[in-house]
Amino acid sequence: MLDKMKIWKSTKEPDTLDDRIRECLNYKIPNHIAIIMDGNGRWANKRAMPRIAGHHEGMKTVRPITRLCNRLGVKVLTLYAFSTENWIRPKLEVEYLMKLPEEFLGTFLPELIEENVQVQMMGDRSQIPAHTLSAVEKAVQETAHNDGLILNFALNYGSRSEIITAVKSLADEVEKGNLSANEINDTIFSSHLMTGHLEDPDLLIRTSGEIRLSNFMLWQLAYAEFWFTDVLWPDFSDAHLIEAIEAYQKRSRRFGGLQSEET
Ligand code: FPP
Predict the structure, then answer these.
(1) Is 123 a pocket residue for ligand 1 (Cβ < 6 Å)?
(2) How far is the CA of 255 from the centre of ligand 1 (A)?
(3) Given pLDDT bands bounded at 50, 70 and 90, which one contains residue 14?
(4) Ligand 1 neighbour 81 (Cβ under 6 A)
(5) What is the per-residue pLDDT across 134-176, written as a single tens digit (0 to 9) for each?
(6) Is ligand 1 within 6 A of the CB of residue 206?
(7) pTM value?
(8) Which domains are seen in the chain, by residue range?
């Protein structure tokens, strides 16, 4: 299947950020953006501050990025907030990270409701502290009827464990005789993942100069465009998001096929 995406080819460089946002809107906006929000610790270290100060500053970045995605008509914004591997960090840092969803939602839930954002969460709920989970579940419930941007927090999320869970549930279906092994295909497999109800990401952004996936959406990112930046997450601004989208709009997505002029 060939992508119908237009190539971004403005002759005049737009001047202000607002011009760039308007220009972006003339071209294909990614339906689903996934972000690995990295570099909070380094941001804090550079300022001789404790790592948790970096996480707090990183939390503050979530608001403008969510607002801009909503304005652009992005359908899903998935944010990697805590991985299944992050539990090995110092206890105080883990405890702090588990407080951030409460702080963020405690402050911004009314605004998210007002802006028609729907909050969702993916990850293993069983290990998440009750206070964190209840803040997230409250936001999920209170925004369930919103039909604007889906703000999907990946919290205690790990892609390998997600894939193993999907494999087990498919094996169970086969064992019960509801499905034959031969019937399993991409669509059926995808539907058993935590993102079964979502389209795959079109654009993956990772901040802080690290160029790896860190167990994030390994299946779902198969055809995503990747955009890496040295900017640390607390410094990531609207202008950086627009830069990523502009780069995405210049890419030619072929999904294994040929460019349309080659057919
Ligand atoms: C990685 O940076 C970042 C995290 C493990 C946590 C990300 C969380 C946030 C940005 C806040 C989430 C906000 C909400 C609302 C849930 P790092 O600590 O690995 O940075 P480093 O590589 O510089 O040490």
Answers:
(1) no
(2) 31
(3) low
(4) yes
(5) 999 999 999 999 999 999 999 999 999 999 999 999 999 999 9
(6) no
(7) 0.93
(8) 17-158+203-252 (3.40.1180.10)
230 tagged catalytic: no
Token pair belonging to 138? 């409250």
**Cβ atoms within 10 Å, residue 36:** 23
Q: Which of 37, 107, 151 to mutate to test the pocket of ligand 1 (most atoms within 8 A of CB)?
A: 37
Q: Is 86 a catalytic residue?
A: yes
Check whether 5 has a pLDDT greater than 60. Answer: no
Q: Which one-letter DSSP state was computed for residue 60?
A: H
Buried b / exposed e along 213-248 (16+ C-beta atoms within 10 A): eebbbebbbeebbbbbbebbbbbbebebbbbbbbbb
pLDDT at 17: 97
pLDDT of 13 above 70: no
- Predicted local distance difference test score (pLDDT) of residue 254: 83
Contact 205, 244 (CB under 8 A): yes
User: Which of the following is catalytic: 86, 152, 156, 202?
Assistant: 86
Tracing tokens 């690995």 back to the chain, one arrives at 36
∠189-122-170 over CA atoms, to 5°?
Answer: 25
Q: Is 201 in the pocket of ligand 1 (CB under 6 A)?
A: no
Q: 100 CB under 6 A from ligand 1?
A: yes
Q: Quote the tokens at residue 261.
A: 């002029």
